[in-house]
Fold:
Amino acid sequence: MLSKFSVQGFKNFEKKITLDFTDTKGYNFNDKYILNGVVNKGLIYGRNGVGKSNLGFAIFDIIKHITDKNIENHMYNNYINADSDSNIAEFSFEFLFDCGSVIYKYGKSNLETLIYEELFINDELFAHIDRRKSSFADINVKGAETLDTNIGHSNLSVLSYINKNALLSPDTNNACFSEFIKFVNGMLFFRSLDTNNYIGFEQGSTAILEDITKKGNIKDLEKFLNLAGVDCQLTEIEIEGSKSIGFKFKNKTIPFYSIASQGTKSLSLFYFWLQRFQESTDVTFIFIDEYDAFYHHELSELVVEKLLACSAQSLVTTHNTSVISNDLLRPDCYFMLTKNDFKSLSHRTRKDLREAHNIEKMFKAGAFNG
Structure:
């Protein structure tokens, strides 16, 4: 699991900002969303323009150089913070696995170009390179002794190089390295828009409705939409030789996208990914940006509940306070991002928060502005 993340010099984050999933409280409700002392399900609230989306882009920057998974390059324009005195954006990840701890830090001048990397596993240096000083890497890995340490090219990650070229010996640190690589390959970012922009987990583009049809999930999508308050019947249709979905009426069938509202389109996109959460444990970390942009209050709760039921560590961003409730999560699972800091609600007040508290009402009254 991701236990802590920091970034500075990237997009709107001039100064260092840290997301600490381990700084939890001892609440005795909704404790299933805290695993081994780490927040497993969280919601990030922030006003428009504070950087909620950019936080997601920062976390998923790692996808570019560690994996071969999909990344939307256009999301990484204006990479370096315009007020920063440095020409490097710096990232720090901390992970906790059954085999131990992993700390990965790196700096980049743009999405493509790595400047330095260092990886510690169980407090031992696993690999390091700083191209400002040398193109030679320090690789302290059992099974990688014969690798050429002069890796040169700045687009190549030393970790990706080790993963793809070394036959690692079976030991605890190497097992942790494999867990780290597996976790990053299972990370998924997507946004609640009708266009399927996503980062991580898969490669290439897939038509949403065709995918749902091929998986045989039309009736399940219909059930999901009905549960969400969209009264409809769905059926398989063909459009220009491709499988698709239509709304079935008494006298005719109309293609889904021809009459679906923005909210219904957004729900179909959520369902497209929901299939993967439910089918596979390979999804390790989910970040949904502005998931409720087109949903009303009750529907927002339904979507959150579906996400809470999946096994992956999950974060969603919102500017809607209606989902801030102890009925869904707990105060140390709700985070508030401002232009100045990033803290959970439990660390924004001196009050002893209890399950019975209406934290949405407290939020609106300014109780968490500290």
